[in-house]
Amino acid sequence: MPEANRFAAVGEMTRNALIKNLSVRFEETHLPQPGDDARALVCGLLDLDLTDLVLAGKEAVSEDDVARILSAAERRCRHEPVHRILGWRAFYGRDFLLSPETLEPRPDTETLVSAVLPLSRSVIAARGRCRVIDLGTGTGAIGLTLLCELPQAEGTGTDISQDALATARRNAQRLGVSDRFRTICGNWFDAVEGEYDLVVSNPPYIRHGVIATLDEDVRGFDPVVALDGGVDGLDGYRSIAAGAMSHLAPGGHIAVETGYDQQDAVCGIFQDHHFRCLERITDFGGNDRVLIFSRKPQA
Ligand SMILES: C[S@@+](CC[C@H](N)C(=O)[O-])C[C@H]1O[C@@H](n2cnc3c(N)ncnc32)[C@H](O)[C@@H]1O
User: 127-138 pLDDT, tens per residue?
Assistant: First the structure.
């Protein structure tokens, strides 16, 4: 069917038929998950969940909505990720707004949150509060999730990007934790004062030379500053390890996300700065993903 006709026919379509239509179009464009993308886009733009589709998939879609969805589908065909188009992405069961300078939070990063929750709860049990700093907070995914899960925690989100911090603050407001969240703009610990019980970070860790080879969906839409970890991918860890000793409260912990093949190198960096690795944690796919450190005991 010629292009114009294929989309003209969609005006009379049900939700299910619209998803099918988008799915075919995405398959022709060689997108890797055409059905999932079509469903996510239609559900996201019409504010439906899967139950709505099962129970009312045959409901007709208004012409205005069809037009909106088709224009979104065109963006997806140009490789813009579904959640960039929608403007939000779910993380640990909550929706986070995105903006041009924020990374889309990834499911692998939820591993870090799950890993530090028990540590934070122990701190709260012992001291009544837990001071958390999320370095390179982006949307605020890690830090704000911890504040939502731990009503006695207080958090600071830092980033080099003002745009990211503005988005993190909006997310804090939407999640109802803005009274316990503040932001600092700067290079890792440079503008940070005071001590924290928990330092968390998912720094950029892709090797500079690999950036050009990433999928177009990532390379073209996630901000480079959120991806590029320097020549060996480890620049962020070096800066964080160098600054952490002055800002870690006694008994405190550091948790960082890493690339699947970086854990030995990252452990080495933190050991050089007098931290010891307490735990190595794998993600849902079985890849090395999170490291937890504490201060080395005094000799
Ligand atoms: C991989 S993203 C992680 C974003 C978010 N924490 C998450 O897990 O979804 C890295 C973040 O670090 C920030 N960043 C990059 N270089 C930085 C620097 N020198 N100092 C502080 N933040 C930096 C980026 O802007 C980005 O938001």
Answer: 999 999 999 999
